[in-house]
Structure formats: C-alpha cells, structure tokens
Design brief:
The protein is mostly helical. It has one domain (9-82). Helices cover 59% and strands 0% of the residues. It contains three helices and no strands. It has helices at residues 9-44, 59-69, 73-82. The protein is rod-shaped and about 85 Å long.
Length: 97
C-alpha cells in the first residue's frame, strides 16, 4: 500500500467538504422556506399542505401570486359572518341561512 502524501488530494477533500456544507445549508434554508409557506397558507384559510407546492418548480412561482392576488377563504368566512349568516363548511358549498 502506498502511503505517500499526494499534494493534489487535500484540495479534493476540501472541495467535497465545502460542497457538502453548501448542500446542507441549502437544504436547511429550503426546509425553513417550506415551513413558513405552510404556516402562511394555513393562516390564509387554505390547507397548510399547499405550502409543499413551493418545492415544485412552476408552482413555487404561481402560488405566491395566488396568495397575493386571490381572495383568501378566511376573508370569505369573515364576510359571511359579518352578513349574519354562517360560513359554508366546505369551499364551494352554498351559503346557509
């Protein structure tokens, strides 16, 4: 077995370690990003799992537009409450009252 030192080996090991650290940081940032969007969707009145769509390439561009420009279910329920009728239990169900 040849145990001589090769000067080219150290930069290679450093490169793999550096790439591994970058991948771990990117993974942590993406997890925090998805958790934040899950919370945002839940508070807006949508199902929290829509936040997982932020991992899908085209959906991660469209879903913030839906949040920004769409009417949130929570506001529909609030409007129904203000008008004195109970809010529909299912999205798209006819109003009760």
């Amino acid at each position: 077995m040849n145990t001589t030192y090769h000067p080219d080996a150290a930069p290679t090991v450093f490169s793999f370690c550096f790439i591994g650290v970058i991948v771990l940081i990117a993974l942590a940032v993406n997890i925090i990003y998805v958790i934040a969007f899950c919370k945002i969707f839940g508070k807006a009145g949508y199902h929290w799992a829509l936040g997982l769509l932020m991992l899908v390439p085209i959906a991660n561009f469209i879903m913030p537009l839906v949040l920004g420009f769409g009417q949130w279910p929570i506001y529909r329920e609030l409007e129904a409450y203000r008008q004195g009728r109970s809010a529909p239990s299912q999205p798209g169900a006819p109003p009760q009252g």
